[in-house]
Amino acid sequence: MIAHVRGTVAALTLSSAVLEVGGVGLELLCTPGTLAGLRTGHEATLPTSLVVREDSLTLFGFADEDEKSAFELVQTASGVGPKLAQAMLAVLTPDTLRVAVATDDVKTLTKVPGIGQKVAQRIILELKDRLGAPIGASRSAAPSASPTWRDQVQEALQGLGYNAKDAERAVAVVPDPDGTPNVSALLRAALQGLSKA
């Protein structure tokens, strides 16, 4: 298994990057978002996933470990191969994908070319308990102050593409839950409020 590749970016195409490692040019298939962060002639380190087929060895490169783990996890859903997994990450960030699966958001998943309604429903069904909760932009921050449910729901709405003002307004009208907050249910309530607005 090749866990990551570090080297000089020798070439960039629309779908791949060539990194020169010890005199060998390794081609990594990458999403447009990952490619946008690379510059020819500069050094880069990319987490990688090696896909082995009878007739090929294909190396996929990622912006970070989170993207890599999402890529490998979505392939555990039946009917999702590496190309479709990469297409999902080209359209959706790992957190947007987690929110879509957690909230049964078929519409967001069908934005990915190659995913229809039935495939989206199957992905949700098979990955709901395995994909995990959204990590959010604050994953590198110290865990001293845990975010409130309102912060989590607002962040999830922004991950789904709503602007900060709309997300804040939607969260403000959701009543405080009794006991331990169920963030998924509260997110659904906020989304219902947005759809009525």
TrEMBL record:
<dbReference type="InterPro" id="IPR012340">
    <property type="entry name" value="NA-bd_OB-fold"/>
</dbReference>
<keyword id="KW-0234">DNA repair</keyword>
<keyword id="KW-0233">DNA recombination</keyword>
<dbReference type="InterPro" id="IPR010994">
    <property type="entry name" value="RuvA_2-like"/>
</dbReference>
<keyword id="KW-0238">DNA-binding</keyword>
<dbReference type="Pfam" id="PF07499">
    <property type="entry name" value="RuvA_C"/>
</dbReference>
<dbReference type="InterPro" id="IPR013849">
    <property type="entry name" value="DNA_helicase_Holl-junc_RuvA_I"/>
</dbReference>
<dbReference type="InterPro" id="IPR003583">
    <property type="entry name" value="Hlx-hairpin-Hlx_DNA-bd_motif"/>
</dbReference>
<feature type="domain" description="Helix-hairpin-helix DNA-binding motif class 1">
    <location>
        <begin position="72"/>
        <end position="91"/>
    </location>
</feature>
<dbReference type="Pfam" id="PF01330">
    <property type="entry name" value="RuvA_N"/>
</dbReference>
<feature type="domain" description="Helix-hairpin-helix DNA-binding motif class 1">
    <location>
        <begin position="107"/>
        <end position="126"/>
    </location>
</feature>
<dbReference type="InterPro" id="IPR036267">
    <property type="entry name" value="RuvA_C_sf"/>
</dbReference>
<dbReference type="InterPro" id="IPR011114">
    <property type="entry name" value="RuvA_C"/>
</dbReference>
<keyword id="KW-0227">DNA damage</keyword>
<dbReference type="Pfam" id="PF14520">
    <property type="entry name" value="HHH_5"/>
</dbReference>
<protein>
    <recommendedName>
        <fullName>Holliday junction branch migration complex subunit RuvA</fullName>
    </recommendedName>
</protein>
<keyword id="KW-0963">Cytoplasm</keyword>
<comment type="function">
    <text>The RuvA-RuvB-RuvC complex processes Holliday junction (HJ) DNA during genetic recombination and DNA repair, while the RuvA-RuvB complex plays an important role in the rescue of blocked DNA replication forks via replication fork reversal (RFR). RuvA specifically binds to HJ cruciform DNA, conferring on it an open structure. The RuvB hexamer acts as an ATP-dependent pump, pulling dsDNA into and through the RuvAB complex. HJ branch migration allows RuvC to scan DNA until it finds its consensus sequence, where it cleaves and resolves the cruciform DNA.</text>
</comment>
<dbReference type="InterPro" id="IPR000085">
    <property type="entry name" value="RuvA"/>
</dbReference>
<comment type="subunit">
    <text>Homotetramer. Forms an RuvA(8)-RuvB(12)-Holliday junction (HJ) complex. HJ DNA is sandwiched between 2 RuvA tetramers; dsDNA enters through RuvA and exits via RuvB. An RuvB hexamer assembles on each DNA strand where it exits the tetramer. Each RuvB hexamer is contacted by two RuvA subunits (via domain III) on 2 adjacent RuvB subunits; this complex drives branch migration. In the full resolvosome a probable DNA-RuvA(4)-RuvB(12)-RuvC(2) complex forms which resolves the HJ.</text>
</comment>
<feature type="region of interest" description="Domain III">
    <location>
        <begin position="145"/>
        <end position="197"/>
    </location>
</feature>
<comment type="similarity">
    <text>Belongs to the RuvA family.</text>
</comment>
